[in-house]
Amino acid sequence: MFRRTVIILAILILCLNLVAYAQKSNGRLAVCKVQVTLRASRNSYSYAFSSVPAGTCLVVARVRGKWAGVVMQDGRIGWSPLASFQLTDYQVVYNGGWQVKGSRSPVTTSGNSVTSLALKYLGVRYVWGGNTPEQGMDCSGYVKNVFGKLGVKLPRRATHQMAVGQVISRYEDLKPGDRLYFSDRKHTRISHTGIYLGKGYFIHANSSAKKVSISYLITKRWMSICVAARR
User: Fold this and answer.
1) What span, in angstroms and rounded, lies between the C-alpha atoms of 84 and 145?
2) Contact 49, 82 (CB under 8 A)
3) Which of 25, 52, 139, 217 could form a disulfide with 205 if both were Cys (CB 3.0 to 4.6 A apart)?
4) Which domains does the chain have, with CATH numbers?
5) CB atoms inside a 10 Å sphere around CB 224
6) Of 85, 53, 88, 91, residue with least CA distance to 70
7) Could you give the CA distance from residue 72 to residue 50 in angstroms, rounded to a whole number?
8) Is residue 113 classed as helix, strand or coil in its secondary structure?
């Protein structure tokens, strides 16, 4: 009898933990503006769980004053100053895998379709020459896949993709869903591409991060080599 009671209590505790985890897993997609330390409580001196580099995408499940509660890999909440994050307009829900629920702000229909689909590939590993989410993708393969799902056929290589679509010549004219093209450091060829999300952010198959991730365009690193945009 005692053993059965213990087992039942264990099951109840497990169920409560799963419910709590599900509640924590709903939130806003956010990007670390700086290197972020996730702590056990809303206190700069509390125990530090881990450190997350700038540019990492996280899910902010709670906001308490000037602190943001982030869902960590084990389901626990780690706290860091809210000012360390750039909150995007995208809601995300965990249902056996992260699902992006779309933009909370008005954007063009085509842009919303492109960005919503593009965000579903977050975390897919980078593989040079890769063409599928299952096997991994490189930058042009990623962009080709996203637009292909929406019925827009693009060439395989970034250089050839840049020849397709309406030319956007000013940063101020960019809209979510526009394609961005980057040169190499010597400005001798097109070496990278991504999809603009809005508010200065873009998503791409990032060889440095080794996965599809979000980066901030308005930095010296990216603006110095961003040479073209297409719609």
Assistant:
1) 32
2) no
3) 139
4) 2-98 (2.30.30.40), 106-230 (3.90.1720.10)
5) 12
6) 85
7) 9
8) helix
Question: Is the sign of the CA dihedral 89, 29, 131, 208 positive or negative?
Answer: positive
The residues assigned a catalytic role are 139, 192, 204
The phi-psi region of residue 79 (left if phi > 0; otherwise alpha if psi is between -120 and 50; otherwise beta) is beta
pLDDT tens-digit map of 185-203: 888 899 999 999 888 889 9
Angle CA 128–112–192, to nearest 5: 25
| Cα–Cα dist 66/83, whole Å | 7
Phi and psi at residue 59, to the nearest 5°: -110, 115
Residue 20 pLDDT greater than 90, yes or no: no
- pTM over 0.90, yes/no: no
Cα within 13 Å of Cα(208), Cβ side: 10
Query: In the numeric block, which tokens belong to residue 87?
Result: 């909150």
Contacts of residue 137, defined as CB under 8 A and 6 or more positions apart, other chains included, come to 121, 124, 126, 127, 130, 131, 145, 205, 212
CB contact at 8 A, 157 and 221: no
Cβ neighbours around 168 below 10 Å, total: 18
Dihedral of CA atoms 58, 150, 114, 98 in degrees, nearest 10, equals -20
